[in-house]
Write a structure and sequence with these properties.
Structural class: mainly alpha
Order of helices and strands: HHH
Largest sheet: none
Distance between the termini: 69 Å
Number of domains: 1
Shape: elongated
Helix content: 40-55%
Low-confidence stretches: none
Radius of gyration: 28 Å
Length: 75
């Protein structure tokens, strides 16, 4: 097989046979986007850690405390 025979580009004739399709109405809005709220990132916790903290607020509080301690130690 030559390089010319391996060519995968469609011919001009075959492109003329393909009807044009209007995809402007194909994009549907995400109906669940407004349910996301203020969440920007999702973090998966080990079940044992979740059982220890028990709520999102306590996890966030612990992480903020850890960041504060790390900043004080770096200073």
């Amino acid at each position: 097989m030559t390089d010319e025979e391996r060519r995968t580009d469609p011919s001009v004739e075959s492109l003329d046979e393909i009807p044009e399709v209007d995809f402007s109405q194909a994009i549907r809005p995400n109906r669940y986007a407004n349910l996301r709220g203020e969440f920007h990132h999702v973090v998966a916790l080990d079940p044992a850690l979740w059982n220890h903290f028990g709520s999102q607020e306590k996890v966030v509080e612990a992480l903020r405390l850890l960041v504060d301690v790390a900043r004080r130690g770096a200073a």
